[in-house]
Amino acid sequence: MPANPIFFAETKLPHQKNYGGALFPAVLSPTAAVEHSRNRPSVLTAAVKDQKPWLDSLLHRHGAILFRGFDSVSTASDFNDVVEAFGYEELPYVGGAAPRTNVVGRVFTANESPPDQKIPFHHEMAQVPNYPSKLFFFCEVEPANGGETPIVLSHIIYDKMTEKYPDFVDKLHKHGLIYTRVLGEEDDPSSPIGRGWKSTFLTKDKTLAEERAAELNMKLEWTEDGAKTIMGPIPAIKNDETRKRKIWFNSMVAAYTGWEDKRNDPKKAVTFGDGNVLPDNIMYDCLKILEDESVAIPWRKGDVLLIDNLAVLHSRKPFTPPRRILASLCK
């Protein structure tokens, strides 16, 4: 289905990669006609509503879409309107690790961990069974320096890892992964996985927290000053049914190289599903492959990035403040 030329122009950036003729990510900017309508606060919202089937097909082909140059999107509320225009159902952030704050409507801050910390590649909430299918990010305040959100196609990583480490991938197929995280009672903003148990389960009631953990098939053990969660065994590799390919759907490298704070040892945060430790050399080589295949487009104020969470892993580079990236998760 062709795009309506009234709204969107497909543009190219030097950062994009070409996979089988499809640029990653797709980049859409306003047409000349839309440029003349910059006063309309809802121009991107209207364009999304008009072109929703085409945008869905574009996302399916490319895995991610960057909307750039739509000046009508400048606030968290504007961003919330764009998210609503897509019509995807909201996903409550239950079981996730990142410290976040609700801003307005369906909009939250992205991971609030300190700016000097890198957040490694992961599929959003891949460590729990109820994960989002779509992610939105919005640049409200452009970073002073750094702070990109690199993205990478998951099936490319699966193919490269299978080619280089077939025995390791076989073990992942056979055993899956176990994720272990130690949580405090309250959020710890100094940690990239600092979400406390109250925020993780959206309750102050321990009994209700236990019920919500059980709904996720997650073991919850109370400690003196918090809780320990044990998730798994859970698959590390999934089939992307709509695209007929296997995907590297996990938070393995993120946990192994980044789940570190005063409570957590990253080497113990993730293991094979049979409890055996993961090979250190393969973990760091996988990280290198992820970085080599990734695309990191510097943020500009007003950017909206839509990611298919079944196709794409994402991360965050360290940055010099100010920087404010907002997010929204969809079923």
Describe the structure.
This protein has 331 residues and is an alpha+beta fold. It has two domains: 8-115 and 126-144 and 296-330, Clavaminate synthase-like (Double-stranded beta-helix, 4-Layer Sandwich), CATH 3.60.130.10; 154-291, Double-stranded beta-helix (4-Layer Sandwich). It is built from ten helices and 21 strands. It has helices spanning 32-35, 43-62, 76-86, 154-164, 166-175, 197-200, 206-215, 252-258, 266-269, 280-293, and strands at residues 8-11, 17-19, 22-24, 26-30, 64-67, 102-104, 107-109, 119-122, 134-141, 145-146, 151-153, 177-184, 218-223, 226-234, 238-240, 245-247, 270-272, 304-308, 312-316, 319-320, 324-330. It has an eight-stranded mixed beta sheet with strand order 1-4-5-18-9-21-7-6. Strand 2 (17-19) and strand 3 (22-24) form a beta hairpin. Helix 8 packs across helix 10 (280-293).
